[in-house]
Amino acid sequence: MNKNRFTLNRRNFIQGAGIALTLPWMETFAATSGTVSKTPKRFFSVYHPDGVGLPLKKDPAWEDWSWFPRGGERDFKLTKVLDVLEPLRNDITIYSGLSHPAHRSVHGHSNADQYLTAANYGGFGTYKNTISMDQVYANHIGEHTRHSSLVMSTNGGTGAPRGAQTSSFNAQGRAIPAMNSPKQIFDMLFVTSGKDAYNKLARSKSALDVLLADSKAMQRKLSRHDQQTLQQYLDAVRDTEVKLVKAQKWIDTPVAKVDASHLNLTAEPQDARAYLQSIYGLTYLAFLSDSTRVATYMMGRENGAGPHDLLANAVGHDSAHELTHRVKKPGGWKNLGTFNRFQQEEFGRFVQKLKDTPEPDGNGSMLDNTFAMHGSASSSFHLSRNYPIISAGGKNFGFNNGRYLKFGSDNEDNQAGAGQASDVAYKSEIKVKEEPLAHLFVTILQRLGVETDEFAGFKGGLNRV
After folding, report:
1. Contacts for 316 with CB less than 8 Å, ≥ 6 apart
2. Residue 122 and residue 162: Cα distance in Å, rounded?
3. How many whole angstroms separate alpha carbon 150 and alpha carbon 169?
4. Residue 292: which of 187, 177, 138 has the closest Cα?
5. pLDDT digits over 344-353, tens only?
6. Which helix (H) or strand (E) holds 99?
7. CB of 46 within 8 A of CB of 299?
8. Which Pfam families does the annotation name (predicted)?
């Protein structure tokens, strides 16, 4: 294949995808010795707080505004909550009957931290989290990209134990701070480069070296408790050191130049549609430019108000969290269902964009090589059971979509815990059988190329996936 012809085709593809993207010549896109690099495998997780609407079957709202579909594995019918995904029916899988066993009796305000970790930290007392599955994959694949992972949330930062504002946790179980400004995310992905960036990295590395040396000398003079506190701090410092070392490795590689004029990089949560579209748009650009292959976005924290509450403005309401508390008021189930529908509409827009974009090497679409999931660790009114989860894509590494997969037993029509409008529901007796969500994580990791048969102590993948 002629090298110049290949380059021209690459540029035409990028412009045809709806953006102007200029990349330096890289061997990834060159036809050298008759071979091309493997197509990237990508993972993206979106978390939404507060669960979904599950009215009782006898309630008139059940037909239209219950989140889970009706019917069987292939002949399922989407309610009005999910019907915005009907054009993507053959590209998605919907799951019921999955949850983390250790948290089935924990109030929903305390369960988001374990969504991607499956850690058994309980609803109160001593708190110790573990690595999230996105970071397991980031540790496996991150050396191939400028950024090991992209961690985002509406609220930003880390939050507090049992009130996380990030979905991602490192190997020591520490929360990884999330970015929440579209402009900040764009600059991190596509602006930082050149001599100034190199000098800044060098200064930061030098300062860290001094800090670590001083800390080691201090450690010998501290009490046992203070030594543990200092060790936790030093672990965080070393995380920064690792990032600096990697940044130096990539400093001479030009960042991708992208046109983000179609995104509102100054959007804030009160302008909910523009904000979500910017988050999804930046994730798309990060994947398209192969700046990273791992991303998480936490739409909101579980235990109270915050910037994420403003996302309900998109459907004419003043508080996303309060929608779950008002389901027994006139139109309450419809109002919550309409907000859940908005969440899926924007997720579907992102999925469609991936589907419409061919891979540069011709190996299907970006969606075929991306596993994107959208879910919550609550179902009905902060009940930590029967997580509502949708996945999309992953065809090229073994995911067979167009299905509604029900796991466990004794929960026909997802009526266990349905109709709740009280915080006491989480204390109710567990009468149904559910499968550990960690088994799905094992399957995802295996198909992404991670050699493992276990996650968070749970062995084996999930049957039928």
Report:
1. none
2. 9
3. 12
4. 138
5. 999 999 999 9
6. strand 98-99
7. yes
8. HXXSHH (PF07586)
What residues are paired with 107 via a beta bridge? 383
Q: 153-179: per-residue pLDDT in tens?
A: 999 999 999 999 999 999 999 999 999
What's the DSSP call for residue 214?
Answer: H
Say how far apart CA 334 and CA 327 lie, in whole Å: 8
Which amino acid, 465? V
Q: Residues 79, 67: contact at Cβ < 8 Å?
A: yes
Q: Give the whole-angstrom CA distance, residue 426 versus residue 458.
A: 24
Distances (CA, A) of 296 to 176, 367, 406, 411: 11, 16, 25, 30
Residue 436, phi then psi, degrees to nearest 5: -65, 130
Structure tokens given for 212: 């670590």
Question: From CA 138, how far away is CA 147, in angstroms rounded?
Answer: 9
Q: Are 300 and 152 in contact (CB under 8 A)?
A: no
Residue 281 tokens read as: 């748009």
C-alpha span between 340 and 48 (Å, rounded): 9
Check if the beta carbon of residue 110 is closer than 8 Å to that of residue 428: no
Nearest-angstrom CA–CA distance, 92 and 24: 34
234 in Cβ contact with 172 (< 8 Å):
no
Amino acid identity, residue 179? M
Contact of 240 with 147, CB cutoff 8 Å: no
Report in angstroms the alpha-carbon separations of 151 from 112, 138, 246. 15, 11, 17
| β-bridge mates for residue 72, sequence order | none
Checking if the pLDDT of 193 tops 60, the result is no
